[in-house]
Each structure stands twice: as structure tokens, then as C-alpha cells.
Specification:
single chain; globular; 11 strands; 4-stranded antiparallel β-sheet; 7-stranded mixed β-sheet
Length: 126
Amino acid sequence: QLQLVESGGGLVQPGGSLRLSCATSGFTLDYYAIGWFRQAPGKEREGVSCINNNDDSTVYADSVKGRFTISRDNAKNTVYLQMNSLKPEDTAVYYCAVDPWAYCSDYIWVNEYDYWGQGTQVTVSS
């Protein structure tokens, strides 16, 4: 019932910015975490950031801390990932996902997220 749709990916130059969106529907949960993940060719999927619905607290991977910001618009049922100062190593397919009845803290555990979107490609290149 829960559906996630990512959008906003594209081609940007190093140092540029991009905002990803994750539109959600079918939510009946009172308590959950939403995370952003990415997977580059030949690499494991890694957690980028997450946000908790109960208190809006956030977690960021060290590689994006200070450059990326996760937020949400409750009226639009949408979660965003604002990406600034982009680097070529940020190139990947980006996914959003939901961990039901969970709270993200300290580390973003990929295997704990149960519902995933289809992903959106982000390419950082000059």
C-alpha cells in the first residue's frame, strides 16, 4: 500500500546543486523513518540521510555532512534531499525508502528499510 516515487535527478556540474523529491502515498503509520540511499556502479548501496517523523531529527553520512540537507513537506507528503557542492563521487542512483515503526539514529541501516522507490539518476560531471 505504501508507495514512494523519486524525482529530480539529472546532470549537474561539480560544485552545483540539485534537489531530489520523494513523493509518498498510502501512509497509515504513526511512527517511521524515511531514508535516502544511493548506489554507484560496482558499489554497495549506502545510506545518505534519514529523517524521523515523530521529531524531525535527522542523520547524515559523513560523506555528505554539511553539503546535503533532508527535509519534508507534510502538506505535500514529500521528502526532499537538497544536495549542494556536488562532487563526481556523488554520482549514483538515489533511492528513498521507509522503515516502518522505526527510528533512525547514528547509522542508516540499509537492510532495515522495507519499502523502496524506483530510484533517480544523479550524475555529477563537467
